[in-house]
Every structure is written in structure tokens, then in C-alpha cells.
Amino acid sequence: MSSPSKSSVQEAEGFLDFVDASPTPFHAVRSAKAILDEAGFKQIKERDAWSSSLVPGGKYYLTRNASSIVAFAIGSKWKAGNPIAMIGAHTDSPCLRIKPVSKKESDGFIQVGVETYGGGLWHTWFDRDLSIAGRVIVKSKEGNYEQKLVKIDRPILRIPTLAIHLDRQENFQFNKETQLFPIAGLVAAELNRRGSTDLADKLDEAKLGEDFSPLQTPSQRHHPYIVEIVAKEAGCSPSDILDFELVLYDTQKAAIGGLNDELIFSARLDNLMMSYCTTRALVSSLSDKDALKNDQTIRLIACFDHEEIGSRTAQGADSNLLPAVIRRLSVLNPASPSDSDASEDGTSTAYEQTLATSFLISADMAHSVHPNYAGKYESHHRPEMNKGVVIKINANARYATNAPGIVLLQEVAKRAHKVGTPACAQADESGVPLQLFVVRNDSSCGSTIGPMLSAKLGARTLDLGNAQLSMHSIRETGGVWDVVHAVSLFESFFKHYDGLEKMILVD
Q1: Which CATH number belongs to the domain containing residue 192 in this structure?
Q2: Please, which pLDDT band fits residue 197 given cuts at 50, 70 and 90?
Q3: Suppose 12 and one of 340, 423, 480, 494 were both cysteines; which one would form an S-S bond, judging by CB atoms 3.0 to 4.6 Å apart?
Q4: Looking at the UniProt record for this protein, which Gene Ontology cellular component terms does it annotate, in alphabetical order (predicted)?
């Protein structure tokens, strides 16, 4: 394998910027919005009527809870009941979340109480330079309650391991409730900073004169200096903070590595790589000003929060978010009334017709073969990084892939062009490679948003993702070329689904 091309490196570097700016789902949605805004997408709201504001040829996005985002472009030839080409991903990753009451002290150390989110490899969080990010709810000057995103860019927390001299464990083990609390500093140093010999007295003084609060204030439930740092980042006073949702993240930036710059070392590859690739592909598919001119479909992406904990929340994939959006889009009127051939009865079943002709790609990272644990992989299903997007299959429907979907994706892959390659390029410059993956019969299998959405919608669905190592670690490894592979594949899906949908004759 040669070194990555210039376009591959540029696309990978775009992802590095995206993931570094996105330590939480809130930040990931903000990063996606920035890409969409630059491409001319218009933000809309679920609470508003769409029938008069959405038009064929338009580009739009909406958010829910500021942690999930749906974006779509409507073909100029759209009619009620037509297909929607969809790609779904998720914005969350396993992490440590600060508890509602996090203030802890022990043996002279200031500590922060945290709660595990998702199925992380928690031992990888030890001895890392950690900081805080998330959203803060503040009271504005007008008396409203607003959300502000914060990301502390300097390391302030660390979970130290116990010296091997004190516990010679062959296998590293720890208690998640008592031995996973990070240290944030020394009590003596904090007392010295405040100019007091008794921190408890200082906190008691702070309570005097405060208005009644049903709950303790954030400065009472958390270490006051942490609240001060968060408030400074949010651009407000500590007393303006009413509550927050904050998590820990690794301050080490993502990087391109490997002897030939072929690898990506980063946090949150699962699943921000797929979130980035879907967003970039939607925008790239519209780069031609006439991209939607003859398109009869809608091109849609949906990046959901809470996949790592089961998706059963208002902003998760198992909510009404995507069905509600599709229902509203399915009955949109065409640009010209003369273009519509739908009867009143046809309009009433437009939602069902749209679902029957639509297709969903569930994009979530896949497992690369691990050279040190090769026996964990089925002998004929050993995906490799930089060898193409991985189609994920499971006989017990942990993934939603089936044969018609594989046929469709192969046709999409054949028609794909590498990013930066003109459409008139030679055959050897086009096409995206694909790989197949199933787990061993004696191994457990993960799952994705694919099965739940395919069951909820009844739409044809396929699961795929880029290959990576160290999934759910604080620091994961992926392939540089695979970023451009996924973007190219998804772009081709959006461009060609209108024609390909009619070729897959399965009812």
C-alpha cells in the first residue's frame, strides 16, 4: 500500500479538526452545524410549520436537545411519497460524566465524583490528562434560561493508577465506584488560593444572603473553583449557572500517525468518524449547483445521541425523531402543482409509500482485525484498515444488513469517485472497496441503530462502518484512507439512489 493521497490526508485532517472540537454530543452537533451552515443549509425547528417554508431544491437542518441533528436536501423533482436516501450515525461515545453532586475530598486531595456512561474500556482512562466539557444552563440578563457550551482546553483532572509496588496485579482490576474518581488538585493549594485556612467556613459564608433554592446551588454541590472555571468559559458569573451536564475528555489532540502517515490516533472515532463522513458526504453531494435539479428523492442524514446507552431517549434513534421528520417530509408538495399526480388518497398514504421506497444506511464503526488477537476473528472475515468500508452482517439481526442491501451498496460503490477526482476520471481512479464482517459463533456481537430503525420504519436498511482498533478506549486507532472511502461512498449513495432504487426488484 502506498502513502495516502493528498485528498485523503486533507479529508482526514478535516476529521481531526472535527473530533478535536467535539468532546461531547453537544459540540459534535455544533461542529456539524458549522459544516452545514457554510454549505448554505437553513436551520428549521420542529415546533414550526414546514409546509409553507420547505420547498423542493432547499437544504435544511434541525436539532433536538442540541445533541441530535437531522439534515436534508430536497430534490427539485420531489413528489409526495417519493423515496428518501438516509444515512444514520450517532454523536455520543463512552465517557465519564460528572455526578449531580460531585464534591469529594480524601487524604488532602480534591476529587470529583463521576459516573460511567456507556460501555467504556475504563482502564484506559487512568493516567490521562483530562479536562471538562459539556453544556451549562445559565440565567440571562433578560431572565431567560439559555444553553452555553463549554470546553476547558487545559488538563485539570487525572485518574492515577496505583503503583505496582503496592499491588502486583497480573490483570489490572479496580472498583468503578471507589477507585475511578479523578483528582483535581490538593486541598491545601485551594485553601491557599482562597486565602482561608478553613474551606468549609468559606463555603458556609457563601450560603449567606442567597435566595431560596429548592436544590443546593452548583457551587455547593461541586467544588466552587470548578464552577468558577466553567463560568469563565461560559462567559457568565458562577451565580448565573443553574445546572450543567459535564463530562470528562482527554485533552490530547487527534493525530495522523504510522510510519507512512496511514493511521489516525484519536478519541471518539466511534462514532464521530461516521458522523463527520455523513455530514461531509451530504454537503459534497450538493457541490454541483444543479445537483438537485432532476432529483426526485430527499437526501437525509441523522446523527443521534445516546446510542451507547440503548437509544431509548427523546433524542435517541429509538425515539420518534426520524419517523416524525419523514412523516412531515413525505407529504411535502412539489415545486409546481402541475407536477403532482397524487390523488387525495395517495397523499394520505404518502408516508407509507415513502418508507417502502426509501433506504437507510446505518453508519457505525466496525472492528479491524487485531494482529495480537487474530484468533478472535472468523478466518474469512478479517477487516483491515484502509481497505474499504466494512459491511456488517449478523444472522441474528444484531445488524440489519441483507442481500438486496449488499447488492445496492455494491452498485453505489462502483459509481463512487474518490474525493477530488473528476467524474470523467479513469476507471482505476473510481470505485470504493468494500469488506464483509461477521463475528465468530462463539463470540458476542454488538449492535447499532440499524435494527431498531429498520423495525420502526420498515425501510430497507444496511449496517456498515470503517474498521478501527481499540473501540471504546479513550484513544482509538483508524485508517487515514478510510475517511475518504466513507465520504466517497456516502456521496455516491446520495447521488445515485434515485436511479438505483428502481433496479432492486424485491417486494
Answers
A1: 2.30.250.10
A2: very low
A3: 480
A4: fungal-type vacuole
Contact 390, 463 (CB under 8 A): no
Q: Is the pLDDT of residue 208 over 50?
A: no
- Do 460 and 477 sit in the same domain of this protein? yes
- In sequence order, what DSSP letters do the residues of 137-149 get, joined into one string? EEE-TTS-EEEEE
Number of Cβ within a 10 Å radius of residue 146 = 14
Model confidence pLDDT, tens digit, residues 11-48: 999 999 999 999 999 999 999 999 999 999 999 999 99
Return the percent helix, strand and coil in the chain, to nearest 5.
35, 25, 45
The residue among 33, 22, 61 whose CA lies nearest residue 300 is 61
Residues 70, 163, single domain; the answer is no
Whether 301 and 160 share a structural domain: no
Grid cell listed for 422: 473528476
For 190-199, which contacts have Cβ atoms below 8 Å and span 24 or more sequence positions? Answer: 190/110, 190/223, 190/225, 193/225
Say if residue 1's pLDDT is above 70: no
pLDDT tens digits for range 273-315: 999 999 999 999 999 999 999 999 999 999 999 999 999 999 9
Task: Check whether residue 414 and residue 449 sit in a common domain.
Answer: yes
Q: What digits encode the pLDDT tens for the residues 242-277?
A: 999 999 999 999 999 999 999 999 999 999 999 999
Among 167, 138, 177, 132, CA closest to 150: 132
CATH number of 322's domain: 3.40.630.10
Residues 6+ apart with CB under 8 A from 345: none
What does the alpha-carbon distance between residue 484 and residue 461 come to, in Å, rounded to a whole number? 22
Domain that holds residue 27: 6-93+267-335+346-503
For residues 44 and 105, membership in a common domain is answered with no
| pLDDT per position as a tens digit, 102-132 | 999 999 999 999 999 999 999 999 999 999 9
Contact by Cβ (8 Å): 363, 490: yes
Question: Does one domain contain both 184 and 294?
Answer: no
| Residue with grid cell 485551594, as numbered in its chain | 190
Q: Which of 69, 86, 88 is nearest to 22 (CA)?
A: 69
Closest CA to 305 of 285, 322, 329: 322
What pLDDT band is residue 140 in, cutting at 50, 70 and 90? confident
Residue appearing with cell numbers 457541490: 287
In a domain? residue 108 = yes
Flag whether 476 is in a domain: yes
Provide the terminal-to-terminal Cα distance of the chain, rounded to the nearest Å. Answer: 42
Range in 99-108, 149-158, 170-179 the model is least confident about: 170-179
Residues 226, 311, single domain; the answer is: no
Number of domains in the chain: 2
